[in-house]
Amino acid sequence: MAYSKVRIPTEVYHLTKRENLESILADKRIRRFGDTECWFCRSPEDMLRYMEYTVLCEGKPYIATGGRIQRYPKFVPEDYVLLKLTPSKWEDKWYQWNQEVPANASPEVKDQAREFSELKIGYRGDLRFSKVEVWDVRQLMGIQPEQKQEESLQIMQAER
Fold it and tell me: Residues 101-139: pLDDT tens digits?
């Protein structure tokens, strides 16, 4: 794994399970747990694309913290929130992990590896934040919670 330093961001976005929200808000920090870094994206658009490479890949294998191979479970948007965070300190602890690919990899694979690497940035340590906004992941994904209910009602009325 090749790391490179990145500029200190003024705001970052972090995907987390809704069940973690209360403790995150109480602690005013994102914890890295067993990893060296905690991971973020620079924009909601980057986060959505990052999700397409990761959590939205139901059943595909990935390497978890500690090197264990696991499979992505079914993604349930209602179970997640997106946090827009303003870091509390301007610390030079921000890195990008650059996906390594073999030299003989196809141009397409190299492009995907570069895109994946550029979507996320890591903070070495636990990130303390001064401001937070909580976003509904369903809205990020273009799913309106009321929309499904209205569509179901229209379908039911059309069937009558």
Answer: 999 999 999 999 999 999 999 999 999 999 999 999 999
3 state DSSP class of 114: helix
> Scanning the structure block, which residue is given the tokens 């490179």?
4
- The answer to whether 127 and 87 have CB atoms below 8 angstroms apart is yes
Burial string for 110-146 (b: 16+ CB within 10 Å, else e) reads: eeeeeebbbbbbbbbeebebeeeeebbbbebeeeeee
* Region for residue 65 given its phi and psi (left: phi exceeds 0; alpha: psi -120 to 50; beta: otherwise): beta
pLDDT tens-digit readout, 90-104:
899 999 999 999 999
pTM: 0.85
Helices then strands, each counted (H, E), the chain: 5, 10
Is it the case that residue 150 has pLDDT exceeding 50?
no
How far apart (Å, rounded) are the C-alpha atoms in residues 116 and 92?
Answer: 22
Tokens 């696991």 correspond to 70
Angle (CA) 4-128-37 rounded to 5° is 35
